[in-house]
């Protein structure tokens, strides 16, 4: 048997922080996003990214995907506190099992002429980014992938005339035939 | 909205106005008393109340009073307390009681008026974002935009307020929705798909817990307000399980009364101003069984030195309470009553020998001999502890309910007034709301007309809500407000003495009112007492008077509330008397 789990001081935790993606299924009623976001700010939790949309029109259920960072104990608390909210139906940790798939979509405007413009287009092809608007001195690229891929693309575009970035935040779903 | 409703023949749809729906729903929920204050945005509901004699409406003097009265009603009856207030300032004045009820898990339904739907968001007169403001401090809240949602919403509010871990629920109703015509549906079949508190314990958790209990040599029950919230079944189950096991029992401030104070295994309250025996037993135990309590910082003291050698079982209906502050070995997520009954069954079913607790009880008896609540008696001054002691002796054999304000008097009441039954002790534990006690007493008395209801108060706290004496007079609620008057904000003064070099910054109340004249001005009775020799007679006079009494008990001005675990110290570092500031280190000073 393990030693007692007693005397645990949360203010001196040495546990490492982890990044987790949580899928929160909620009743799509007015103010529900405010409840979820308010809980994070009231209890001092982090939100790295947040996406939300209705996913079941018939049952009026929305899916909120939150990327958060915290120690394992804090992440357990976040989950328990979310489930305390009346409109929250379920909270699923999409990272824990490593069966989660994550994608993010980004739109980036890059302005430039000459060699830089050609280079931007060449890199976009490598990243399989689509050009969805073009003028003589700019492109708008649409790019889908893991957040790290989008970060990388943004870094490469910076010296080539990156003007503006818009990102959706992380979406996630689990591999396999079953719903979670 | 996804809630499914089943409309039975009995509760078939009937057309009513929104205001009629509110009253019909309250009646169906069994509401006999409510507390409120009218205003523009709730006038249609008040108009319906005019012809609803089944519901007694207690008109308060400030909306905060309505909230605390509803809390007192709820905590003394086990039913949901109901408050009705108007929009804007009516709603914002309710924020303190809503937060108070949230912190102490008190079932309460608050109905607020709102400006008409077409004016929402225009900064209309007496408009405020009630659901936005109360989102973080209520268990749940609603803004009802369609009259056809109204009946179901009110029933859902009662369901959520009273089940699971209880709490306050706010229903915000725009004025045009109160006038609109819609269908009424009954409470039968109203449920919320996403809301399903777990009440039955997991059998494996019960088996694990019972196994730890059988092996324990130094066990302790640490019980909280959850036992009382769970109802009489939980109190009975706790007493039965204790009888079977013989384990000693301590309780939080909120849990007083679940276990009888006269029982030989009762250790008294634990925590910052708890008993020496309770705190030492918590520190030295090898098994802690936490039932419906939440390891509040006032209970644990220094967390990294909290009960270092014990295994811990935590029974709670709220999964977020588990491992929030203290990591436990066996979590049991369930209603206290169900979990205690299951534990009792598992205990009875076991064939192994019951633990020998003789050494442990002997140790506890040694701690008891310190007589930690002792104080220096005086023949010339009324000691505050003596005042509570005499009040206890003269009222204990009656049908008595006690409420308190917040501060030293509250702790003295918890130490020196003893409870045999649950629901007899109403106090603001989590939020620590000065001004809770008097309106709470109003609510208790409204629920228990024949009982003796006493607010043990401080002269500072009670002045935050004194206007509610007028409520008591108007509604013939013979509450007794027993003020331990030391002219100081006593607990603030005590901390300034101990932590801030005796610099008494703004904690002395100059020009206090003459409480006797004040009582008379309100049409109540005023009694003043300043000599220990006259105290019993004065208390008797208070008890015998058939009407509200303001009792001004002049006590020693600079008495400290002891014993005390200084901030940042552990349970076994308790100070019994004559504290100097040196016991509290720099880290401790930064804590509240």
Q: Roughly what percent helix of chain B?
A: 25-40%
Looking at the structure, what is the overall shape of chain A?
elongated
Shape of chain B: globular
Can you summarize the main beta sheet of chain B?
Answer: 6 strands, parallel
Task: Explain what you see.
The complex is a heterodimer of chains A (180) and B (592). By secondary structure, chain A is α+β, with helices and mostly antiparallel strands. Chain A has helices spanning 32-42, 72-84, 114-126, 147-157; strands at residues 18-27, 49-56, 61-70, 88-93, 100-111, 130-135, 138-145, 162-167, 171-174. In chain A, strands 5, 6, 7, 8 and 9 form a five-stranded antiparallel sheet that branches. A four-stranded antiparallel sheet of chain A has the order 2-3-1-4, covered by helices on one side. In chain A, a hairpin with a 4-residue loop joins strand 2 and strand 3. Residues 3-11 of chain A have low confidence and may be disordered. Chain B is of the alpha/beta class and 592 residues long. Helices cover 37% and strands 16% of the residues of chain B. Chain B contains 24 helices and 20 strands. Chain B has a six-stranded parallel sheet with strand order 3-2-4-5-7-6, sandwiched between helices. In chain B, strands 11-10-9-12-13-14 form a six-stranded parallel sheet, sandwiched between helices. Chain B has a six-stranded parallel sheet with strand order 16-15-17-18-20-19, sandwiched between helices. In chain B, helix 7 links the parallel strand 6 (140-143) and strand 7. The longest helix of chain B is centred in the N-terminal third of the chain and has 16 residues, at 147-162. The radius of gyration of chain B is 25 Å and the shape is globular. At the A-B interface, helix 1 and helix 2 of A face loops of B.
